[in-house]
Amino acid sequence: MKKLLFIFAILSIIACKNEQVAQKNTSENEFVWQAANLYFLLTDRFHNGDISNDLNFDRTKTPGKFRGFEGGDLRGITQKIKEGYFTKLGINAIWMTPIVEQIHDATDEGTGVTYAYHGYWTKDWTTIDPNFGTKEDLNELVETAHKNGIRILLDAVINHTGPVTEKEPVWPSDWVRTSPKCEYNNYENTTSCTLVENLPDIRTDSNNPVDLPPQLIEKWENEGRLAQEMAELDAFFKRTGYPRAPRFYIMKWLTDYITEFGIDGYRVDTVKHAEEYVWQEFKKECDFSFAEFKKNNPEKVLDNNDFYLVGEVYNYAISHGKSFDFGDKKVNYFDESFNSLINFEIKWNAKQMTSKAVFQKYDSLLNSELKGYGVLNYMTSHDDGQPFDKEREDPYKTAIMLLLTPGTSQVYYGDESARSLTIDDTIGDATLRSMMNWDEINSSDDTKKILMHWQKLGKFRANHPAVGAGRHHVISEDNGLIFSRVYKNDRIIIGIDMFESSINIDVSSIFKDGDILKDSYSNQEVVVKNGKVDFISKFSIVLLEKK
Q: If residue 524 lies in a helix (H) or strand (E), which one and from where to where?
């Protein structure tokens, strides 16, 4: 009997330890959108993986500098995933600019001849622009990303078509409005108008049934897929009961990318320029399509996360809470719509406030009014002419403030390698959109040091959801700023701006005596004694995790 009791006791201890390990692994390895480390890239500007698709549709006019197609494509992104570039950087989600077929012609609206390299001038939502690749390329990209623990976001444009050119006639008037131009000083003249001249605005407010544009019917007929597309539309409208209004056609076309390829989310463009109910409807269809994909492809399901929607409400700030103020009306874009909104405020917070104040502010807001939702923090983007560090004078601080502030982080391609944002002879936002600086990454020691800094912080963030989603607590300010973050069973301690190489930190609130910790920045192990860790580091950053 004693022998049986002894065996039972041993088995209980083993089971308990296994459970503790399982809890630790679950918390550390869990993917949490509120803590994700997301990489944003222009599909055309990141990496050219297939030079055979660089020219299509006779796009041969000479464009302004960085205003034409440069060759980047889906295969290029896949290649870098396979090489481990994103994994080494701690990236667990990638958002790329729209990949649907773009207008074939160029425009010249005062900024030089410009092609739709950026992806926001849609011609046909149902197919991929050959300059970016093929559906087979997208399928390989998503599957490769998922095998490497990386989620994929595409970019959704419902608000407008591409500009009108000699080759691209305007869509019918029951589909689009071509005036007035938005004035942006109240709700109506932000939603029922065109963003800029010659960018036809989809009538997202209309519930009137419309026929397909004749140019789209002709295109599909020439491509031999008109009957298939029409049958799919019939099935969609029968299932949903929606009127055949413009926005519902586009929702059908966009959600097809979910059911066919299993993408994990959409970044949604120009959100405040369409009525709020549009996004509630879009979320409903995205959720349905994601559930269908999971049901039909159980072997490809990554986790229990819902489909992720992050919206671009231009000038939304985390300080606004859930509501964006149009002046005459406030709109809540979170409830029943978006999981997260892009936060246009953090770059100013990082310039005007201390790190301590920024971290405490974001921790407070994300755990009160915004609890259950998130914000997408960024320091640089494709259309923000006032980035945090325009001259790339302090990429080290950029990384610290972006990757260690609570919320989801958005690394803009080249942030991690100090890609220049000031390009001679460019006009407007083209200066922000140069080709990824792979040559500097491969040859410059300074660039390699910057990249290593981003990699260390990024990997730590990816390994610990506590960094982005955990509760924040200040431990000490004796030697820089020392703080802890806790998310479920994931517990970490971080120190920044440390001015002494002799590190002595009270870790008793998180770790216990005898725990073996690793400082992931200096790559050394330390043991907790008397509630503290004591070691020497030549770096001003400490990233403590339990071994």
A: strand 524-527
Q: What is the CATH number of the domain that holds 269?
A: 3.20.20.80
Contact 456, 521 (CB under 8 A): yes
Residue 21 belongs to domain spanning: 1-30
- Count up the domains in the chain and report the number: 3
The reply to whether 372 falls in a domain is yes
Q: Do 541 and 464 fall into the same domain?
A: no
Same domain assignment for residues 349 and 459: yes
Please check whether residues 316 and 395 belong to one and the same domain.
yes
Closest by Cα among 310, 297, 305, 328 to 378? 310
Position 1 scores a pLDDT of 45
Token look-up 């919206």 returns 311
Q: Which amino acid is at 2?
A: K
CA distance linking residue 485 with residue 508, whole number of Å: 13
Q: What is the pLDDT of residues 488-532, one digit of tens each?
A: 999 999 999 999 999 999 999 999 999 999 999 999 999 999 999
pTM exceeding the 0.85 threshold for the entire prediction: yes
Q: Are residues 158 and 90 in the same domain?
A: yes
Give me the pLDDT at residue 111, please. Answer: 84
The whole-number average pLDDT for the span 129-141 is: 98
Backbone φ, ψ for residue 154 (5° rounding): -95, 175
Q: How far is CA 434 from CA 70, 89, 438, 457, in A?
A: 9, 20, 11, 25
Helical (H) or strand (E) element with 39 = strand 37-41
